[in-house]
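Bumping with the actual sequence this time:
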Amino acid sequence: MTENFDRLAFSPQEYLARRDALRAIMAGRGIDVVVLTSTENTYYLTGFGSLAYGATALVMRADGKAIWVMRRTELSNVRALADQLWVNEGLGVVDGQDFSKVLDGAIADVGGPNAVLAVEFAATLPSLRGFLGPVAGARKVVDASGLVEHLRRIKSPAEIALLRRAGAIVARSCRDGFEALHEGMTDSALAAVVTDSLLRNGSGRVAQMPNVCAGPRTARAHVTWCGAPIRRGEVINVEPAASVHDYHTPLYRIYSIGEPQDLVRRMFDVCRDALNEGYARVRPGMTSHEAARVFETVVEKAGFGEYMVTRPAYSIGASFPPGWGEDNVMAIRAGNEQVLEEGMCFHICSCLYMDGIGCVPASMPSVLTKNGFEPLADDEVVFGVK
């Protein structure tokens, strides 16, 4: 029997439960029709994750009736999955046709002329900007940004299982990179090893290529390989993410060929201490701000506070290009008063960025349980030295 490689990530019941959770929010806010354009949000609701070349929108009525509006050629993906998707009808936009007019017609058909319409302003495609102007006077238009993100904050057991699978793959890729590391190697060659390992061990398409870099350049956020030789004693950063059904688990590791300077060792120890303190103390019911201060206080007391320029953790889950994070869904950061709950998944990444030295990380993808964080990757947080 031939395996169905187009099988959706979860059962039909899980997608229908997500749809109905959104319908409940719509009913509570008096929304008749919602227009979703975020790929992550439509994928979460339906399981359809094709990266369309052109605008794509999901139009859904409060009773669950829904239709796709997308480039006509992309409808081939909807047809292929029609027996699995709870929304399998679509309107194709011919190349050169005005997307906004087709979308406006779909909204009128689904919701009628006086529907209260909610549109994701925070994820609005350029083609929708032209659409919103003329219809604003005819319909009440409200902001749908954050509706689906609110549902995405807490991962189901099935979602967490995918993140664990991706965690095993990404941990293997980092170990393979370290094993291949040798003097005279270029950062590009190291990146090739890490990327090859991801694919050989089962990762799907990744939303962002790995960040692989060495030396003081690592202090430049998200700078990656450039063909530079890796020199003895300098900081080496390897940060890939593996993808299973587009659920991404990242991992950030630090290596060196030969002993690094003492300052770098101290920086790593502080970052690892902050990570360990978060594991020991952060629990559901704390605010994001309170949790962030657990990590940050360790770094500040050690005298490195000015070099911790990022939030301690960001949400992870289903992601599409250009990045693998869900910072707009949830994050552990100072000033954020959202409450942490069981089932939230994060990439915890205590990092110090020091010009002239580089970036020193201590990272672990994690799920928050009632007893605290649990790792999503089978990997030790160590400074790898060859």
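The tokens above came from a reply further down the thread. Residues 12-152 form a domain with the Creatine Amidinohydrolase; Chain A, domain 1 fold (CATH 3.40.350.10).
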